[in-house]
Amino acid sequence: MKLLSDWGFSLEGLRTGNKGEYWFLAQALIVIIFPFLPAYRPIWLALNSASYLYFNWGVAAILALIALVFLGKGLIDLGKQLTPLPYPKEDGELVQTGIYSLVRHPLYSGLIFLTLSWAIFQMSLTHLFAALTLFIVLNAKASKEEAWLSAKFPEYAEYRQKVKKLIPGLY
């Protein structure tokens, strides 16, 4: 329980959602359900040649490696600032170095790239839809988080101008 309270969870927060608990619950629900989704592969998505299949697997593997780098380096660089809630820790500091110099939310990016990798590997529209849903939820969660970070850290506005939100160089 200490870890949960260190992260900012409280019974009041679960009732009110005042630190973004509902965004975390939506994210957790998608991530937990994702591996159990049935794969839906329409006929027109069938890969009829080995070269297409290997290309597909190669793209999926590259996305999975990118995801693991984002997740691993994001966790390392964030260190004690880690909280699954979008509300920053009271004693938190703004991290702008390491992977955070490439993208503002690398842990969210890592989850998105990982689910997209699995959707491509499986050639599953069900998983692709879930990855898109996760992107929408994490993008909204990041926007809420950024409002709180902007209020807490005056330098966040400049950081936001320099570094993309979820996809380096693009978005």
UniProtKB/TrEMBL annotation:
One matching Pfam family: PEMT
Topology in membrane: Multi-pass membrane protein
Any one GO biological process: methylation
Keyword terms, alphabetized: Membrane, Methyltransferase, Transferase, Transmembrane, Transmembrane helix
Record's subcellular location: Endomembrane system
InterPro entries to which the protein is assigned, alphabetical: Metal_cation-efflux_comp (IPR052527), Phopholipid_MeTrfase (IPR007318)
Top class in the EC scheme: transferase
A Gene Ontology molecular function term of the record: protein C-terminal S-isoprenylcysteine carboxyl O-methyltransferase activity
EC number: 2.1.1.100, 2.1.1.334
Transmembrane segments annotated in the record for this chain: 20-40, 52-76, 111-138
Name under which the protein is recorded: Isoprenylcysteine carboxylmethyltransferase family protein
Organism expressing this protein natively: Floridaenema flaviceps BLCC-F50
Organism lineage: Bacteria, Bacillati, Cyanobacteriota, Cyanophyceae, Oscillatoriophycideae
